[in-house]
């Protein structure tokens, strides 16, 4: 028995004492990879990013180029997705429209992060008047219907890529701020935060080194899900005619422009709608997959 | 002057579709005739032209092939967005389609664009052309039992000039009627504007700032409100059937907001319009849904179908003959350039822009039947139109355009700034496509990048004079060249200013002599305008109408110039269509 006991102890110590070289992210990726929809979403997103950001190299023509005499062509060997009502190659327009959507999606969410995360951190970490002020601001902003507020801002600022990014960013930081605040309200009571503070760490130091890394998982999920929302908002505003300026292609505007023609030229509405749906699905699948993969309870 | 033979020569060298169009549209000679007629009847001392009604009614009886009275129902649709009032002198831009049914203007416009007596039986002007007296037909009654008198017209015009009313169309009379601009500004009482009662209650006298031989044409917009109703019920009395008063052939039966307006015959009507229709039902519908209503036989008439909708109608033999092409209000749609600001302060740049618009391709691929190329401002058929002779000035010639741009200091577009084209929101599909196509052409031929910025419509009009490069339209408000060409004078809607042009327009506008000489003066002004390129003209609207086959009558037969359609101003007492349209016995019953 003694031999057995003595012999087994080093193995147990080895098992208990050794550091697992694989990080939490490794396991999260493993869980992500096992979700079929998430992987499909990832493939879609990568595909869209390739055709979107590579549009200048991959598209058959420049997005401004139009041959009026080739207008309203149905899909054929020369124009795989047909042409629009002024002779733009529709494949080109969809590729560049995807680029526009991705740029707006990423940039608008970037602005939302720049506003929402610091405000949420400040509210969650400092509490008191800071928390009160941030929460009241969020409540005031929540009182405005998002789309109507965006329409109002677009009307004031004027249409264009820059303005639409700004407007969507300004109207979509609330979720991130609330989420970050809620995370920090929980985390700031943890012993390691108390320890860091007792050792003289500043709020900024605590935030960056201790809190942010621990709060980042749900925020990543929120960001991933915010991207398709921003893309859809752009499509919606462009559909209403106050989004992206021609000749920059926008999938939402392409859908809107197809309305008077769609009963005859079905391809004008179908392809941009499919592209929007694909973008939404791709990012939503990835977001859902990340949420499940990064959920600590999955450990 | 263009002779008939030279016109035919021109037609022979045109593409078939153009030739057909010009055969269908008014020729220049016709324009001179009709325009001359309109103006000729207005000259000082001349009596108004005689006019015989073309109503289908004979002694009050319907034609033999007409449906019975109870089925003389017309159904149309209108956009509910602007349906707030029903009278021109309440607000112009807040009326739905099918408004102005409750009184009659002093003059009326026939389908051949003749100015004929309306509420007035005759009119005459003073020697200096500044005082105009209109004589009302006696015995024309309001539905409340009062007679239509000069007091109603005087009160209506005073009401329009009242700053508290804030009428949205004051520009129309400002600077034209004596003291009108001053009244709007609050500088003089409204009682001092140049509209007053004459020798008796049947005479309305108009005094103008300058000689105004065109005044009777302009008084197409003179549908009076009831002075008594205004005093008793205040403004908007015609928005409620309870307080509504009419001297027109119809009265307000029902107005359910955002649903429908129903007009029925005014039994107390004593005017001389003989109208077969007994009821007009106006359904409120988003323009995008109007064709669905038409297809479902819920309405009998619609205007401006979308391109695909038009294609659907034309592709079936059962529906192709329901498509009518009119001339509308002779609107011209154009790209305007701020001639006071670089780079458009250089004539060569403006000329370059004018030579790279391929109207032929646009007509073929975008406009179809719905519009026709506009090489100049005044549409064929409008008085003083000179389309054929001005066509070459802004003709499509991209090589010339490139050369002119290089001459201006921008070889192959190098150094030329990126442009923003200001585009008013709510444009038609044709406008959207035209603007996008022109931007692509500027890029292709001149290597100039153009971004199209859509601007809220109200903001657009408020700021239009500040835009460097934009897109807008203008259609006539009255059938005289002074109206259309006045837009481009220094005090007009754009930044363009050319003293030579101003003088030509001003001299022609106030000219009291031979109408043909006056027309020639306007033509010279238009030549200066087109050569100076303050705008690149794109197209003239020839609006498409869809009309159910059971709506018949002389109103839909070809006019003297071969155009068969409901003519501007459409379904209102200031036009003639109400007398010239009825429902045939073939119509389905119970169409409400």
Measured on Cα atoms, how large is the radius of gyration of chain A? 25 Å
* Number of E-state strands of chain A: 0
Sketch the major β-sheet of chain B.
6 strands, mixed
The total count of helices of chain A amounts to: 13
Helix amount of chain A = over 70%
Which pair has the most extensive contact?
A-B, 29 and 36 residues
Task: Offer a few descriptive terms.
heterodimer, A: 299 residues, mainly alpha, 0% strand, elongated, disordered N terminus, B: alpha+beta, 4-stranded mixed sheet, 29% helix
Task: Describe this structure as you would to a colleague.
- The complex is a heterodimer of chains A (299) and B (592).
- By secondary structure, chain A is mainly α.
- In chain A, 73% of the residues lie in helices and 0% in strands.
- In chain A, helix 5 (90-126) runs parallel beside helix 9 and helix 8 packs across helix 11 (203-239).
- The relative contact order of chain A is 0.15.
- Chain B has 592 residues and is an alpha+beta fold.
- In chain B, helix 1 (4-13) runs antiparallel to helix 2.
- The longest helix of chain B has 18 residues, at 429-446.
- The radius of gyration of chain B is 24 Å and the shape is globular.
- The termini of chain B are far apart.
- The A-B interface holds A 64-66, 68-69, 71-72, 85-88, 155, 158-160, 241-242, 245-248, 257, 259-265 and B 288, 306-309, 311-312, 358, 361-362, 364-366, 420, 425-426, 429, 432-433, 435-437, 439-441, 443-444, 449-456, 459.
Helix and strand layout, with pairings?
The complex is a heterodimer of chains A (299) and B (592).
Chain A: H1 2-17, H2 24-33, H3 36-53, H4 55-58, H5 90-126, H6 128-143, H7 146-157, H8 161-171, H9 174-187, H10 191-198, H11 203-239, H12 251-258, H13 267-294
Chain B: H1 4-13, H2 16-24, H3 28-40, E1 73-78, E2 107-109, E3 115-117, E4 120-125, E5 131-136, H4 150-161, H5 180-184, E6 195-197, E7 203-207, H6 215-218, H7 227-233, E8 250-256, E9 260-265, E10 279-284, H8 287-295, E11 301-303, H9 307-315, H10 317-320, E12 323-325, E13 332-337, H11 347-354, H12 359-367, E14 371-373, H13 387-390, H14 398-407, E15 419-424, H15 429-446, E16 450-455, H16 457-463, E17 469-474, H17 481-486, H18 499-509, H19 515-532, E18 535-541, E19 544-547, E20 551-552, E21 582-583
Parallel strand pairs in B: 1-10, 15-16, 15-17
Antiparallel strand pairs in B: 2-3, 4-5, 5-7, 6-7, 8-9, 9-10, 11-19, 12-19, 13-17, 13-18, 14-18, 20-21
Helix pairs in contact in B: 1-2, 11-14, 18-19
